[in-house]
């Protein structure tokens, strides 16, 4: 059940140069093109190499703990208008989120390319922790760029990365969040590209990252689709996921794209509310533009400058989004809706109290969205939600939000 | 199509010297301040100025230019201000091209930007994050509005990409001297001469400018010994801290460098 499979989808995207309709492509300095071509070639070879697939599938099973289960959550579902919610438990993966799926794949590719050094960006720290983990496992040197604001609100993950032997570099430029961490990683990559692989953590960036990262995460949807059929004898009526860059969402959506009865709904971070301007709802409120190497929806001003975003969730606090989501939005195959900080935190608490599962705040956006979606779909509806990560890293944020500690 | 920068390189060629090209971002420290600084570059001896478009996510720039771009954006510089700076340079008889990351142009409208830049008297655009493969609409607009298209090549560029990039380029080919971001360095990278040598094979007759890391007349002389243009950016941004006199002095120093080709290092 685990592992990467050839892409058999009839959607026929992307094309050979990484275009999803008008989106995607490569808007990067020429200096990086050779490395991107090499990565494309090595990845293409590897995915049809049984030895590579066996190695990756072995790690996914024995190291990550795949397949991740699905969990029916009836007490949470009581708040969802009679729909039954089923969670895909990516939070139970080693390192605590879906990020490890892609990281192991790219770390093996790094070895295959003979590069000794890996760099990565991270927002919430989940991708950074997963990357530091894979580098420890495979003996690769690891440098993680993280916005200074995020190093403060996700201090626990900074410590985890350092424990795992990674160097964490706080990024002090721009908005000092995920966007700027990616800028700094790209600058490092341009300088050290001969020895270094940039292990990008989401389905954004220049080709081949959006398609390659998607393929490494498709295992989520492939497993979930089979698990739903086995347990319920039918496909879900809708699949829900949170969308920042969009990696967990594309991973669970993609194997359902050719199932027209299944609605695909992504939930973006609306922060204080889309009307306030303090949000990160890129697909809902943005317009097409280039950021970090691809054309996609983008939160930008009328001069094409990237706008600083806000979300309580560091992992969704990003003004761009993967180009395939832009394509799915424009074609109408998927829809994208905003969820505010307050809605997400309510769902964070509700899932904790009704089911004993503390989700990542990122994933809490998908849970919040599923509650309203369930009410729309009505009694008897079956709703699959990607619980992309667990909430240990967010306890500090929750303490502040809910005022959980007694005053001294 | 005849290159708009053709006469510049012909004139420099007749004097047996390389051209000197200086970069500063528009709006740094203010819009009018940048007008004066760019004019001072030309007065000091630059043959051409690159007017930079400050951008929120400059992934090919080091700390010096990043800081200048951030300051310019905080000051509220807009793309129309960049065009007005180009217009004043051209009106005073100077030559200007624009250097810009692509999203501001995409957002403005590629054809509209080309039209307005041409109307302002600009001669072309340098595009650090646009490769010819993704540049169909720009190639068409540049042709239509008679602007030079200055693409970059890097030490990592394969021969095939040198050929295809040179074929799409008009004006001059911008060769990055090293793998890295912008910023002044003590030594000109040895990869620069090798890259220019390789590029010449695929770009017969196309002028080649070398940028990244040049900051003084000795380095300018070294680059001028194998390239058609010496491009200086971060060092001018630093010099701008001392105002127009600092910029003029640096331009004058570099201008002596491009007129005094150094012997190749043994």
Could you please describe the fold and organization of this structure?
The complex is a heterodimer of chains A (408) and B (266). The N terminus of chain A is likely disordered. By secondary structure, chain A is α/β, with parallel strands linked by helices. Chain A has 2 domains: 155 residues, Rossmann fold, CATH 3.40.50; 217 residues, 3-Layer(aba) Sandwich (Rossmann fold). Chain A is globular and about 55 Å long. Chain A contains 15 helices and 15 strands. In chain A, α13 crosses α14. With 266 residues, chain B is of the alpha/beta class. Chain B has a single domain, classed as Aldolase class I (TIM Barrel, Alpha-Beta Barrel), CATH 3.20.20.70. Chain B has 12 helices and 9 strands. The termini of chain B are far apart. At the A-B interface, α1, α8 and β12 of A face α3, α5 and β6 of B.
């Amino acid at each position: 059940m685990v592992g990467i499979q050839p892409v058999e989808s009839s959607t026929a995207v992307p094309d050979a140069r990484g275009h999803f309709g008008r989106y995607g492509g490569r808007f990067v300095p020429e200096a990086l093109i050779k490395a991107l071509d090499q990565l494309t070639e090595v990845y293409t070879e590897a995915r049809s190499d049984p030895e590579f697939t066996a190695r990756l599938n072995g790690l996914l099973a024995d190291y990550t703990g795949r397949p991740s289960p699905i969990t029916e959550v009836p007490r949470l579902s009581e708040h969802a208008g009679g729909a039954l919610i089923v969670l895909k438990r990516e939070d139970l993966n080693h390192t605590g989120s879906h990020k490890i799926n892609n990281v192991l794949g790219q770390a093996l590719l790094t070895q295959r390319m003979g590069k000794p050094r890996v760099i990565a960006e991270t927002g919430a720290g989940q991708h950074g922790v997963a990357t530091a983990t894979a580098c420890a496992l495979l003996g690769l040197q690891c440098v993680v760029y993280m916005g200074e604001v995020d190093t403060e609100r996700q201090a626990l993950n900074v410590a985890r990365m350092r424990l795992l032997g990674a160097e964490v570099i706080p990024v002090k430029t721009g908005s000092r969040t995920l966007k700027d961490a990616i800028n700094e990683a790209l600058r490092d990559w341009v300088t050290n590209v001969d020895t270094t692989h940039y292990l990008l953590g989401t389905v954004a960036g220049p080709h081949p990252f959006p398609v390659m990262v998607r393929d490494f995460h498709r295992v989520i949807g492939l497993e979930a689709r089979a698990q739903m059929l086995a347990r319920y004898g039918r496909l879900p009526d809708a699949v829900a996921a949170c969308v920042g860059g969009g990696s967990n969402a594309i991973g669970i959506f993609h194997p359902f794209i050719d199932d027209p009865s299944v609605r695909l709904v992504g939930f973006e971070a609306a922060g204080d509310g889309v009307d306030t301007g303090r949000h990160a709802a890129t697909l809902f409120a943005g317009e097409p533009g280039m950021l970090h190497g691809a054309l996609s929806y983008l939160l930008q001003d009328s001069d094409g400058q990237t706008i600083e975003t806000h979300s309580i969730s560091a992992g969704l606090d990003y003004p761009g989004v993967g180009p395939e989501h832009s394509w799915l939005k424009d074609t109408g195959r998927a829809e994208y809706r905003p969820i505010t900080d307050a809605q997400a935190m309510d769902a964070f608490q509700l899932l904790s109290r009704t089911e004993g599962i503390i989700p990542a705040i990122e994933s809490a956006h998908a849970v919040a969205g599923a509650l309203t979606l369930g009410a729309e779909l009505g009694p008897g509806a079956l709703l699959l939600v990607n619980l992309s990560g667990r909430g240990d890293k967010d306890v500090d944020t929750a303490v502040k939000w809910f005022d959980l500690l007694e005053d001294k | 199509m005849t290159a708009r920068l053709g006469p510049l390189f012909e004139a420099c060629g007749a004097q047996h010297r390389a051209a000197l090209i200086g970069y500063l971002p528009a709006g740094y420290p203010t819009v009018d301040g940048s007008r004066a600084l760019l004019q001072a570059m030309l007065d000091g001896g630059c043959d051409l100025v690159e007017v930079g478009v400050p951008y929120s996510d400059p992934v090919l720039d080091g700390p010096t230019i990043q800081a200048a771009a951030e300051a310019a954006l905080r000051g509220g510089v807009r793309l129309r201000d960049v065009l007005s700076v180009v217009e004043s340079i051209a009106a005073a008889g100077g030559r200007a091209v624009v250097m810009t990351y692509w999203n501001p142009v995409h957002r403005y409208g590629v054809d509209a930007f080309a039209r307005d830049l041409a109307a302002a008297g600009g001669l072309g655009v340098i595009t650090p994050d646009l490769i010819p493969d993704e540049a169909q609409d720009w190639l068409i607009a540049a042709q239509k509005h008679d602007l030079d298209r200055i693409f970059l090549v890097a030490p990592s560029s394969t021969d095939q990409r040198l050929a295809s990039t040179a074929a799409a380029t008009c004006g001059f080919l911008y060769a990055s001297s090293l793998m890295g971001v912008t910023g002044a360095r003590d030594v000109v990278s040895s990869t620069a001469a090798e890259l220019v040598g390789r590029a010449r094979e695929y770009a017969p007759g196309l002028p080649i400018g070398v940028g990244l890391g040049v900051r003084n007349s000795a380095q300018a002389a070294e680059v001028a010994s194998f390239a058609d243009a010496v491009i200086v950016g971060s060092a001018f941004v630093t010099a701008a801290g001392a105002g127009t006199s600092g910029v003029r002095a640096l331009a004058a120093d570099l201008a002596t460098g491009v007129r005094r080709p150094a012997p190749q290092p043994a």
